[in-house]
Amino acid sequence: MIRSALLNVMTAAARKAARSLNRDFGEVEKLQVSLKGPGNFVTAADRRAEDILRTELMKARPGYGFIGEEGGKDAGTDGSHTWIVDPLDGTTNFLHGIPQFAISIGLQRDDTIVAGLVYNPITDELFTAERGKGAFLNDQRLRVAGRRQLSDAVVACGLPHLGRGNLKHFLDEFSLVQERVAGLRRFGSAALDLAWTAAGRLDIYWERNLSPWDMAAGILLVREAGGFVSDCNGHDAMLPTGDIVAGNEDMHRELLALLKKASKS
Known about the structure:
Layout: H1 5-28, H2 37-60, E1 65-68, E2 72-74, E3 81-89, H3 91-95, E4 102-109, E5 112-120, E6 125-130, E7 134-137, E8 140-141, E9 154-157, H4 167-178, E10 183-185, H5 190-198, E11 204-207, H6 212-224, E12 228-230, H7 238-241, E13 244-247, H8 249-264
Parallel strand pairs: 1-3, 9-10, 9-11
Antiparallel strand pairs: 1-2, 3-4, 4-5, 5-6, 6-7, 7-8, 11-13, 12-13
Helix pairs in contact: 1-2, 4-8, 5-6
């Protein structure tokens, strides 16, 4: 696969930040004996990775804006382009030594995501997409899963925790979905859940209360792999609402219907 200059910039930045995360991930187990040590260490690792990404991306595209989980928003001078970056999606997994986390980089042009990258440094799986050019895992073209029945589907979701989100509403949704699908999964990284949906490993994914950097890149990956993405009301307002449903056309439609039913219960 021959990547564009834009994806080369994004890939180089992600791989450089990944080297820092890999070193830090190797240190996490040594810190588990300390109650305060691991949390503080992971926060520092997150910030180091974002600093690397910001430096590399802004060096290559100096006028672009930048929105990062750790560093806030920089409007830039370009006026049209904004990087939307999560340097470590799956922080809790990282903290516990679970190798399910990713770097996520999305590029927004005006109101449209035009490029996306999700990279798991541990597995060396690099998911990339550009608008109108398809989605790829390393050099392999991606397509969403072709299954049509919810009864055959493996579904990923998010779980409200520590007072975040509406637990009762989620449990209503969960109970309706659980009895209709082959399996429910919670992996702990929204960016990878979306990438895996694009790759056909998951049939459908939904979650609420996300931030733009959790899903910007993944939205494009799914769409370029032939999938459908919306908020939980079926609208194209994922970034402002923080809600997302992603899968193939049939799965997307069926899950939206269940979520609508849960909202009425």
